[in-house]
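Final report, closing paragraph on structural work. Over the funding period we assembled a curated collection of sequence-structure pairs, and we close with a single example.
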Amino acid sequence: MVELLVAGHCIALERFVRRGGAWRPIEFPSLVAVVEHPDGGVALFDTGYAPRFQAATARWPYRLYGSLLPVTCGPADAAVSQLAGLGIDPENVRLIVLSHLHGDHMAGLLDFPQARIVVGEGMSDWRARSAWANTAHGVVPELLPDQLERRAVDLASVPVGPTGLGGRLRNGHDLFGDGSAAVIPLPGHTKGHLGLWLPGAGRDGLLLVGDAVWNRRAFTHGELPLRPLQGDRHSYVGVVDELARLHAERPGLLIVPSHCTASIARARAALHG
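Its predicted structure, as stored:
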């Protein structure tokens, strides 16, 4: 089973999200994917916002984060509450794949104390930065568990296998050891940014790309944002080019950026249609 939830949202200018967008505020949903595996149990891709985000960003300098991107997330919006509605106890979430450590992707992390955490390169970089530098990098340390490194899954220890996606995306880390889910590096937005490939979801598979792009028009029409936040432009554009290739070659494949309302709606319809 794969379910796509939205755990809160922030408000951003459409022009910031994609070139050619209007200078108007739009909702920026925070996607959480729920994957139930017969042997591996429940896994999440990201955890979205949680009500604690407001408290964690109430003080300077983290207050800048919440001020620039106003967040809405009540108790019922949090992933942990929505999972309860699906009959899933937080203690039963075994794995969480974090696309990256920005607050809108991991603010719910503390609600799942038993889960192992899959995170990419640069996991501990925030420890060497000042509070102001962490704010600039979108990282709010108060939202991270104290034992993050102890709970982390070393990606190097997860076997690599073919994904069938070709190009730079041809290999991924086989999350459950049966080819049903592959963690794929998608660097650019941040150094260790990750995506998740679910070949059995939908008719042609589901590729969760986090913030590799913010809107599907990046890979359908080449409308990139003004700049990838804290990222490497060359890597970012390379990943977008790969997503554009996939979209052209396999239009039925569901490519879902975490903040793209249209992509989330399209994927939900395909998964439950």
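The two ends are 14 Å apart (CA to CA). The first strand starts at residue 2 and ends at 13. We thank the funder for supporting this effort.
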